[in-house]
Specification:
alpha+beta; 19 helices; 45% helix
C-alpha cells in the first residue's frame, strides 16, 4: 500500500481550509508509528482519523469523529488529539502496534553520573557539550550517535585511570565484532574477529578508528582541563592500522544515461543534479533557487558536515540544467522537490534502488555513488586533485587521493607511454582503444546555453558572466 504524503500542520485552520478533497487522509506525525490525520471528502465534509503502524509493518487506522467545521459541530485539533491518544493507549491497539519513538534525532548523551570518580562518561559529557556549540549540526549528531552506541555502554562508568591497555584492547575487539547498526534497527549478530572477512574488517576498522579518535580527544580535553592527572591516559589510546580501499565502481556515461532514463521524472532531476555537481543528496535537497548562479558560474552549497559552505563550479550543460530548474521560482524555493511537492528527505532510497535495478546496475550501487562517479570522471580527465577536493568540499586532497588517485590515468598513461623505452617493435593493437573506450565513455550530450540568467546579483564577476553569455548566443 502506498502511503499518503504528509500534510502541513493540521492544527492550523488555514491549512485545513486549503486541503483539496481526496480519498486518502492527510497525515501529521505525532511520533513515529503514531499519526493523526484529516480526511476531506468530495462533499466537503472533514473527519479526524488516527493510525498506528502494526508489528507486521502494515497500518491500522480509525475514524475519531467529524471536524469542527462540519455544520458547526465536531472536534477541534486538541479534542481530536486527546481522542487519538486514548485510542493509541487502548490495550488491544497497544498489543498489535509497533513501538513508538520520538520524531527527530537524539541530541542527549545517554549517561548519568553514579560515582564520585571522574569517569569516561564524564569526559564524554564535557566533550559532547563542547561539540554541541563548536561543530556543525550533522557532524554533532553523527558523533553523538557513535558515542552513545559504542563508548557509553562499554566504558561510560569506568574511571579514566582504570582505562588500561587490556581494557582498551578488549573495547577495540568489542567494537570490531559488533555488527553495524542501521538507523533505529537492532544490531546484527556478533561475529568473531577471526571469522570477519577482509572487506568487512576494513570497514569495521574505519569505524573503530573514528570511535578511538572521539575517546582520545575527550580524555585529552579532560587532561587539558585538569580533570585527569596524566597525559598517558589519552596518549596510550592508539588507532589501529587501516587502509582505505580505492573506489572500484563508478558509472560510465552510458550507464549514467541509462540510470536517468530508468528514474521517474522527479528522481531523474535529482540524479542529474548529483552527476553535474558531485553534491550529496542532503545538499541537493536543501538547495534553494537563490543558490544558483548568484556569485559564481555554478551553485552555492550551504554548510552540512562543517561550518564551511562552498561554491561548486558547473560545466555549461550543468549550468543550463540548474537555471532551467529555477526559472520562475522565488529565491527561497527549493530547487528539487518530489512530484507531490514534498522535499526530498530520505524517501529517495527505495525509488533509487528500483531505478538501479531497471538500469541493470549492481544492486549495491547507492545514490552516493553518483558523487563518486562525478569525482572519478574528473580525475580520469586529468583535473588537479586540489580542484576536485574543493568541488567536493574536502579540506585537503588526502581523501581524494586515497579514493580516486588510481584513476589519474590520462596524464599518467601519456607520460608512461612517452617515457617507456620499447622492448619490441611497435605494433598496432586494436584492443587498446577498445579497452580505453570501455573504461570510461566520455561522450557528452550537447546542451544549448540558457537565454536568461535569473540571478539578481551584481558586480564585476557577474558582469563578466553575462558578457560571456552574450558571446555564446
Amino acid at each position: 500500500m502506498r502511503k499518503a504524503a504528509h500534510a502541513p500542520s493540521l492544527s492550523c485552520e488555514e491549512n485545513v481550509r486549503a486541503l483539496a478533497p481526496r480519498k486518502s487522509p492527510y497525515w501529521n506525525i505525532l511520533e513515529f508509528c503514531r499519526h493523526i490525520g484529516l480526511q476531506k471528502l468530495s462533499s466537503g465534509e472533514l473527519y479526524w482519523v488516527a493510525r498506528i503502524r502494526c508489528l507486521d509493518g502494515r497500518y491500522k487506522q480509525t475514524r475519531l469523529g467529524p471536524h469542527l467545521s462540519n455544520e458547526g459541530h465536531g472536534l477541534n485539533y486538541k479534542e481530536a488529539l486527546a481522542r487519538a491518544q486514548d485510542w493509541f493507549n487502548d490495550p488491544g491497539i497497544m498489543a498489535i502496534s509497533s513501538e513508538k519513538y520520538p520524531v527527530g534525532v537524539n541530541t542527549k548523551l545517554k549517561y548519568t553520573k553514579k560515582t564520585k570518580s571522574f569517569t569516561v562518561g564524564d569526559a564524554m559529557h564535557s566533550f559532547v557539550e563542547w561539540k554541541r556549540i563548536a561543530a556543525a549540526r550533522t557532524y554533532f549528531e553523527t558523533t553523538l550517535t557513535l558515542i552513545n552506541h559504542h563508548i557509553i555502554p562499554r566504558l561510560g562508568h569506568l574511571p579514566v585511570e582504570e582505562l588500561t591497555q587490556p581494557v582498551f584492547t578488549q573495547f577495540c575487539i568489542d567494537v570490531l565484532e559488533t555488527a553495524p547498526k542501521r538507523g533505529r534497527g537492532e544490531s546484527g549478530v556478533r561475529v568473531r574477529l577471526e571469522d570477519i572477512d577482509h572487506e568487512r574488517l576494513r570497514k569495521r576498522k574505519k569505524t573503530l578508528n573514528t570511535v578511538i579518535g572521539l575517546l582520545r580527544t575527550a580524555i585529552e580535553m579532560a587532561w587539558e582541563n585538569g580533570d585527569v592527572e596524566s597525559e598517558l591516559y589519552w596518549r596510550r589510546l592508539r588507532r589501529v592500522p587501516h587502509a582505505d580501499t580505492p573506489r572500484q565502481f563508478f558509472l560510465t556515461r552510458a550507464q549514467a544515461k541509462s540510470l536517468i532514463a530508468s528514474c521517474r521524472p522527479d528522481l531523474a532531476l535529482l540524479v542529474q543534479g548529483a552527476l553535474y555537481s558531485g553534491c550529496r543528496v542532503s545538499e541537493l535537497a536543501r538547495l534553494q533557487a537563490r543558490d544558483v548562479g548568484g556569485h559564481v558560474f555554478g551553485i552555492y552549497v550551504a554548510p552540512m558536515k562543517s561550518y564551511r559552505g562552498r561554491y561548486v563550479v558547473l560545466p555549461n550543460e550543468g549550468m543550463s540544467f540548474f537555471l532551467d530548474l529555477v526559472e520562475g521560482l522565488e529565491d527561497e524555493d527549493l530547487v528539487f522537490r518530489m512530484s507531490s511537492g514534498r522535499s526530498w528527505s530520505g524517501c529517495h532510497k527505495h525509488l533509487f534502488r528500483d531505478a538501479v535495478r531497471r538500469a541493470g546496475l549492481p544492486n549495491g550501487f547507492v545514490f552516493h555513488g553518483l558523487r563518486h562517479t562525478y569525482a572519478s570522471q574528473l580525475v580520469q580527465a586529468g583535473t588537479p586533485l586540489a580542484m576536485i577536493a574543493k568541488q567536493l568540499g574536502h579540506s585537503n586532497t588526502d581523501t581524494v587521493s586515497r579514493t580516486y588517485g588510481h584513476l589519474c590515468c590520462d596524464g599518467l598513461e601519456s607520460e608512461i607511454s612517452h617515457r617507456f623505452a620499447p622492448l619490441q617493435k611497435e605494433r598496432k593493437d586494436a584492443r587498446l582503444e577498445r579497452l580505453r573506450d570501455s573504461l570510461q565513455n566520455r561522450t557528452e550530450p550537447h546542451w544549448s546555453w540558457p537565454r536568461k540568467n535569473r540571478s539578481k546579483a551584481s558586480g564585476e564577476l557577474v558582469g563578466l558572466l553575462r558578457s560571456r553569455e552574450e558571446e555564446l548566443k
